[in-house]
Amino acid sequence: MAKNQASTAEKPKTKSKRYATRYGQHYAIVMIPTVTEIINGMAVTRPGKTIEFKNGIYETKDSAEQDFLDNSPFVGIDYQEVTKAVTSALEAKSLSEKESELKEKEEDLKRREMALKGKEEGSDSSAGKENKTEGKTKKKEPKF
Questions:
Q1: Structurally, how many domains does the chain consist of?
Q2: Which of 3, 57, 79, 139 shows its CA 20 to 30 Å from the CA of 67?
């Protein structure tokens, strides 16, 4: 029995890690390519391993996959590990983006209101000016 307990204690439990991609719905990275070899005149295909992100998220407990994803040249460019710092940064970014969008919309609304007020005032005053100018512009021109 001591052997069984020692063997289970030797195996470290790997912690689950989550990775997120910036490409949204579907992203896949090849961990081990599929290879077709000819052995004794027969084509034998060795299946490979592809890591697929579902809805932009991939979660794994496999230490080999975690090592591959952590040491890949695409980490930080196409995907990154989701940590508390990353999620809080994303939340802060989204809040600041929302605030800036709100400010932009309020400024746009003010501009539109000013434009409407200017048109209303301008249309009344310009209509009166048009009547005055029409009387002045009418000159008797000789008919040839």
A1: 1
A2: 3
Residue 6: inside a domain = no
Of 85, 53, 54, the closest CA to residue 69 belongs to 53
Give the tens place of pLDDT for each residue, 114-140. 888 877 665 554 444 444 455 556 667
Q: Is residue 58 part of a domain?
A: yes
Distance in angstroms (rounded) separating the CA atoms of residues 121 and 109: 18
- What is the rounded end-to-end Cα distance, in angstroms, of the chain? 125
Whether this prediction's pTM lies above 0.70 is answered by no
The token pair at 98 is 């929302």
